[in-house]
Amino acid sequence: MQLRGSSLEEGKNPTVTVKINQPRVMPHRLLKLLLLFLVLCFIFSAVTISLIRHFGGQSIFVTNMSRTTFLSCIDEEPLNFDRWIRPPTNLLHSMNDSELLWRASFIPQRKEYPFKRVPKIAFMFLTKGPLPLAPIWERFFRGHDGLYSIYVHSLPSFKPQFPSSSVFYKRQIPSQVSEWGRMSICDAERRLLANALLDISNEWFILLSESCAPLSNFTVAYQYLMKSKYSFIGAFDDPGPHGRGRYKENMLPEVNISEWRKGSQWFEVNRKLAISIVEDNKFYPKFLEFCRPPCYVDEHYFPTMLTIRAPTMLANRSITWVDWSRGGPHPATFGRGDITEEFMKRVLEHQNCTYNGQQSSVCYLFGRKFAPSTLEPLLLLAPKYLGF
Ligand SMILES: *[C@@H]1O[C@H](CO)[C@@H](O)[C@H](O)[C@H]1NC(C)=O
Ligand SMILES: *[C@@H]1O[C@H](CO)[C@@H](O)[C@H](O)[C@H]1NC(C)=O
Ligand SMILES: *[C@@H]1O[C@H](CO)[C@@H](O)[C@H](O)[C@H]1NC(C)=O
Ligand SMILES: *[C@@H]1O[C@H](CO)[C@@H](O)[C@H](O)[C@H]1NC(C)=O
Ligand SMILES: *[C@@H]1O[C@H](CO)[C@@H](O)[C@H](O)[C@H]1NC(C)=O
Ligand SMILES: *[C@@H]1O[C@H](CO)[C@@H](O)[C@H](O)[C@H]1NC(C)=O
Questions:
Q1: Which CATH architecture has domain 88-106+116-318?
Q2: Residue pLDDT, tens place only, 68-94
Q3: What's the pLDDT score for residue 350?
């Protein structure tokens, strides 16, 4: 009796045939083999059962053998969905900037998330070292676990001393020395954004410094950001020497003077714009080469780039309050004596701005620049004026 090879080979390889033994001999041999097999099975089971009895539930034989075979065969965890959606537990990775920015620029193409994604706010602290206002932030975050994440960029030489109960504990990212007014400060901001983007649940990205304090409670801030149609970054066209005066024609064709913008660097952007900042390698080289002091790159790079890339997504204002009323090239720094009930009223009342295309009396969620000495009066006045 002859059988043809499988249908795949049909016609292609007619010589492939399978011979089968004569039918009479088969049952007898097969029966013998089967019997032998059954006997072996019985012996094996008996030995196994007695071993399990002897060593109790946690038989070395079974657990350790299966474990070692498993490890030697696969050598690592099987691909697990959790791995894609769980934020990194340790922020101290070993990626350099090009690797990090590349990794952070990944965007899922499917609109729906196959899990319950609770959007979070990433609070990114760009600091030299200590966070003197940490206690007010601790209070601000209290009771809102799962709705925020924290990232701190400080001088690489700084060794933080936060207790394990602190929201800032182990939230330091691999940092590098950065200098105000130079591209290294934008690099630090991109590094913060990129680290925060690695957590797929982060939806808003807030840049803060050690002198920033909250001007609302967490609930108000969360709602304000999550419902906003626009991202917040100061971006205005200043015709003077400190605005358009810093523009260089060498930036053409990437940047036209009509698109040149100025603004303070304290931005609040959504995930889409955060990725836009991290992925940019079109404008970056131009600003690196042609915006050097007295062109302060941190005042122009992001506002200009985002104005070109996503003008309709910008509110063109920041929600970080700062006081320019004292004049001079720098905004006022407040000390202990400044933080009074009158001060709080002055800052919080009479706000008037556009929010989602409507007049709003809530314009600022954060403020600067608060000296370390303001901590005590801020903590004292927060319950009455800030709602936490
Ligand atoms: C199983 O193997 C591990 C090491 O791989 C060893 O530490 C452990 O003691 C073993 N278990 C038993 C029950 O012998
Ligand atoms: C990062 O590391 C890769 C591979 O070692 C290297 O090619 C790249 O130039 C590095 N980038 C930076 C910014 O150091
Ligand atoms: C810059 O843009 C304006 C319009 O916004 C255009 O009229 C002008 O020609 C552009 N300049 C250059 C050098 O391309
Ligand atoms: C922000 O400015 C851009 C142009 O610079 C403009 O297109 C956009 O409409 C402005 N956003 C708002 C909310 O007015
Ligand atoms: C806010 O400002 C707009 C225009 O700048 C004005 O029309 C409006 O009356 C002001 N609202 C309040 C409450 O002051
Ligand atoms: C947050 O502040 C708002 C406005 O000040 C207040 O109405 C609200 O009760 C506060 N929320 C909490 C949880 O304290």
A1: Alpha-Beta Complex (3.90)
A2: 555 555 556 677 888 888 888 889 999
A3: 84
Does residue 214 contact residue 136 with C-beta atoms inside 8 Å?
yes
Residue 368 amino acid letter: R
Residue 97, ligand 2, Cβ within 6 A: yes
CA of 249 to the centre of ligand 3 (A): 11
354 alpha carbon – ligand 5 mean position (Å):
9
Cα(189)–Cα(126) distance, rounded to whole angstroms? 7
**C-alpha to C-alpha distances, 70 to 59, 75, 109, nearest whole angstrom:** 17, 8, 34
Which secondary-structure segment (H or E) carries 16?
none
The predicted-structure confidence for 12-36, as pLDDT tens digits, reads as follows 444 444 444 555 555 677 778 888 8
Helices 301-309 and 183-197 pack at an angle, to 10 degrees, of: 60
Phi, psi of 228 (to 5 degrees): -80, 135
Q: Which residues of 239-274 are buried (b: 16+ CB within 10 A; e: fewer)?
A: eeeebeebbeeebeebbeeebbbbbbbbbbbbbebb
Mean pLDDT throughout 285-290? 97
The pair of structure tokens assigned to 247 is: 């523009």
Beta strands 2-4 and 17-19, pairing class: antiparallel
Distance of CA 43 from the midpoint of ligand 1 (Å) = 26
- Ligand 6 atom, smallest distance to 386 CA: 5
